[in-house]
Specification:
Order of helices and strands: EEEHEHEHEHEHEHHEHHEH
Number of strands: 10
Radius of gyration: 18 Å
Shape: globular
CATH superfamily: Dihydropteroate synthase-like
CATH class: Alpha Beta
């Protein structure tokens, strides 16, 4: 990467239609809003667990410019058991309500094939799987539905602790894992043009690992699929800056900008308005987006 310029990776099928929206990831960054129907999410702490609160969060995210809604019913980390039926009851009505409101992309974050299948029936466009296709049947569900798939790096079984993760070279190992999981998905019938990758910041990684991933993110982007980063308010930002959970927005925005410059093309965020403004400014600086108005020293 030349100093002072953006890294623009060669992406397989950069012009994509995802659900009802078209994107050109060679010159566009999509903003994904996080909407959790969980009582124990790491950031929201149940704020949007009630269906009416979750739908209000959908409306708010859309009003603030989100391109994408990521809906989840079970956190990544350990916690109280949630049955398949309970998870479906959390996510399906929210997906149906969101779908009735918008043509924005809707993804479901789950590690269970039956939940993914129910989410697609409710109107979801993409499976966001943070378990690294731990259950390969997830790829079968995506292939059957003809929907999108986000493949994320993680090491532990779903909802299982993984203390003190160790890597010889975290970036090389994450890249190898993602290549392997993408090959598995394609081997089970998922189309290459439907695949997105995520290096999984903080997922079975310590702060040094997540900083290294961010610093060398272009090596992950080189895999050749649109790259999603889910860094919003995460612990590696909090530990780097010594900031509590609700005081990490500045660190998050800085990390998003660096990630975009290293090849990220989808950003998953809690604070939609601030993220949209940061992303659109980067697009403007790079010449991908014209100014909304241009009067200064022109009139």
């Amino acid at each position: 990467m030349t100093h002072g310029t953006i890294y623009n990776p060669e992406i397989k099928n950069p012009r994509r239609t995802i659900g009802r929206r078209a994107f050109d990831f060679s010159r566009r960054v999509a903003v994904m809003a996080i909407i959790n129907r969980t009582p124990d999410s790491f950031h929201d702490r149940g704020r949007t667990f009630a269906l009416d609160k979750a739908l209000a969060a959908v409306d708010d995210a859309l009003a603030k410019g989100a391109d994408w809604l990521d809906i989840g019913g079970v956190p990544f980390g350990p916690g109280p058991a949630v049955t398949v039926a309970e998870e479906i009851d959390r996510v399906a009505p929210l997906i149906e309500g969101a779908r009735a409101r918008t043509d924005a992309v809707i993804s479901v974050e789950t590690y269970r094939p039956d939940v993914a299948r129910a989410a697609f029936a409710a109107g979801a466009d993409v499976l966001n799987n943070t378990s690294g296709l731990h259950d390969p049947a997830l790829a079968d569900v995506v292939a059957e539905a003809g929907t999108g798939l986000i493949v994320t790096h993680s090491l532990a079984d779903p909802r299982t602790p993984y203390p003190r993760p160790r890597y010889e070279d975290v970036v090389a190992e994450v890249a190898a894992f993602l290549r392997d999981r993408v090959a598995l998905a394609e081997g089970r019938g998922v189309r290459p043009e439907d695949i997105i990758i995520d290096p999984g910041h903080d997922l079975n990684k310590n702060t040094y690992h997540s900083l290294e991933l961010t610093r060398r993110l272009a090596e992950i982007a080189d895999i050749g699929y649109p790259l999603l980063v889910a860094v919003s308010n995460k612990d590696f930002i909090g530990e780097t800056l010594d900031r509590e959970q609700l005081a990490r927005i500045e660190g998050t925005l800085a990390t998003l900008v660096v990630s975009i410059m290293q090849g990220a093309r989808i950003v998953r965020v809690h604070d939609v308005e601030e993220a949209v403004q940061a992303v659109r400014m980067v697009e403007g600086i790079l010449g991908w987006r014209p100014p909304a108005t241009a009067r200064h020293n022109l009139v």
